[in-house]
């Protein structure tokens, strides 16, 4: 297996790897049809085995303090995607991608990494095992049908059928009881 920089010709396999990797997570419906491109400098890595992309990692770097990252008053890098193809999980590919990111980030004078994830305990455990610290969280609420707020006006012209919201208040348990699909989105950081 080789860890290398992403190339534009990798896009189709990158999208497939991400889709399959996210399928069994709380991000199962966050489907991309093409790879994201970043406004700021980025570190985009792939893990390749037998000519196939089996792991991905994208991180966007701050050019000034808090341009991309949300937490600290120093230059950071936001991990937007880290994923390993399901057939290759539990083989330390994620750790190898992370180590390569850390090496390149240090050369770019990045002081810390930031990553947001949802409430998959195995994903949280992976971040914690790799020395990330949980620093904050909010709720991501998906609403359908009778869970949706009512819209004023002519109902024949517009009908809300799905929606989502962020909840940053203190009464998280009450919100979790009110809606069927609620994810806790958590922020992890790692000082380099």
TrEMBL record:
<dbReference type="GO" id="GO:0016747">
    <property type="term" value="F:acyltransferase activity, transferring groups other than amino-acyl groups"/>
</dbReference>
<dbReference type="Pfam" id="PF00583">
    <property type="entry name" value="Acetyltransf_1"/>
</dbReference>
<keyword id="KW-0808">Transferase</keyword>
<dbReference type="InterPro" id="IPR016181">
    <property type="entry name" value="Acyl_CoA_acyltransferase"/>
</dbReference>
<dbReference type="InterPro" id="IPR000182">
    <property type="entry name" value="GNAT_dom"/>
</dbReference>
<protein>
    <submittedName>
        <fullName>Ribosomal-protein-alanine acetyltransferase</fullName>
    </submittedName>
</protein>
<feature type="domain" description="N-acetyltransferase">
    <location>
        <begin position="1"/>
        <end position="149"/>
    </location>
</feature>
């Amino acid at each position: 297996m080789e860890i290398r920089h992403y190339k534009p010709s990798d896009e189709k396999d990158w999208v497939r790897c991400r889709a399959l990797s996210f399928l069994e997570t709380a991000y199962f419906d966050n489907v991309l049809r093409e790879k994201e491109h970043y406004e700021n400098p980025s570190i985009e890595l792939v893990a390749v085995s037998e000519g196939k992309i089996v792991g991905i990692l994208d991180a966007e770097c701050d050019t000034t303090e808090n341009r991309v990252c949300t937490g600290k008053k120093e230059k950071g890098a936001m991990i937007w995607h880290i994923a390993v193809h399901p057939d290759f999980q539990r083989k330390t590919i994620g750790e190898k991608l992370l180590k390569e990111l850390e090496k390149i980030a240090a050369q770019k004078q990045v002081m810390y990494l930031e990553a947001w994830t949802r409430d998959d305990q195995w994903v949280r455990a992976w971040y914690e095992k790799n020395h990330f610290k949980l620093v904050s969280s909010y709720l991501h609420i998906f609403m359908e049908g009778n869970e949706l707020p009512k819209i004023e006006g002519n109902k024949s012209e517009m009908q809300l059928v799905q929606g989502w919201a962020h909840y940053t208040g203190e009464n998280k348990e009450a919100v979790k009881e009110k809606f069927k699909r609620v994810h806790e989105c958590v922020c992890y950081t790692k000082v380099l």
